[in-house]
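Our preliminary data section would be incomplete without showing what the modeling component actually yields. Below, a chain of 379 amino acids is followed by its predicted structure, encoded as tokens that our downstream tools consume directly.
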Amino acid sequence: MRVLHLMRGSEEVYGAERVIFAELEKLRLAGVDARFLMLQESRLGEAGDLMGKLLEEMGVPVVRVPVDKAISTRAVTDLRRAIEREAPQVVHTHGYKGDVYGLLACRLAKVPVVGEIHGWLFPRDDYVIRFYEWLDVQALKRMDAVIVLADHYRRMILRMGFQSQRIKLIPSGVDVPALKAKVGQADLRQRLGIAADRPVIGMLTRLSHEKGVDLFLRAFALVRRRHPRAVGVVFGDGPERQALAQLAAELELGPTELVWAGYCAEAMDALCALDVVAQTSRTEALPQALMEAMVMERPVVVTAVGGCPELVQEGETGYVVPSSDPETIAARLCHLIEHPDLALRMGRSGAARIAEGYTMQHWVERTLRVYETLSRAPS
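Predicted structure:
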């Protein structure tokens, strides 16, 4: 079976992109001829080819379709031709441009199309993004199938008028042996100059509004009142870096209290450097970094958004707290610092939960059934 995964090229690689990399890799290992069909936007220049180059290094064939305008009818035509040349049984789309262009091109090429929902922001004050996300919803409604990563999104799109029989709940997963094999590349505590006996709380995330790093900073400032030796670490970069640094200064979190570690290629070692992992997002689907933290047996404190409450079992594998509540976040973080035996048990329980139902093998088996059903359906 040949499958094309379609998405616009990105100059950054974060959660959604890493999920797609893992999906393509595991499909190919399962014997699927999985290829990446990339909408290459000229406005991004060379940086927009990052995903394509990384996938080619992994051995994944990449087909590039140039896009020279924000909205381009020519891109639909070029995409249709590329799909007809590649002759896939199914096209699997990601992101609003992949979904909209993919639906139109697949209908013209008469190829089944399935979209995967990674989540929306629907910002109150950005009407351009709201329009594009509304357009994405309209395209997804018309697809042959739609994959959601969490029941939260299944319920959401049912309220939006999606047909229930087309919705496929398939949580994303992680490759547990591959993640564990990456541990030990670097001693991040030593690199960051953090003493071994200091409690460390942190995040591995993109520094953007929806990820709620500001909530973590406010919570950590409260943690420091009870535990002045605690250290906060933020791994990652993003558009809010300067604003967050300013907030940290206002909260009196200097370099000895809070470490801005930047982007870290050794993600598993970064997670292992933390005693407790916080995920204080305002919106999520099913965070890859959260699953990776659980594989590394880290206790987690997460906000009750997206699929997080489905993944984290309250009081067993971590704590689920209300969104935008720094006081409760701080209280849970303190509790885990103060009860290391409990933190250890929660970390182990989290790893077991991932192994039971959130591996890439589970994802591949469920997704292949969707592909096979669509490929057999009459056109």
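Residues 340-357 form the longest helix (18 residues). The chain has a mean pLDDT of 94. Preliminary results of this kind motivate Aim 1 of the renewal.
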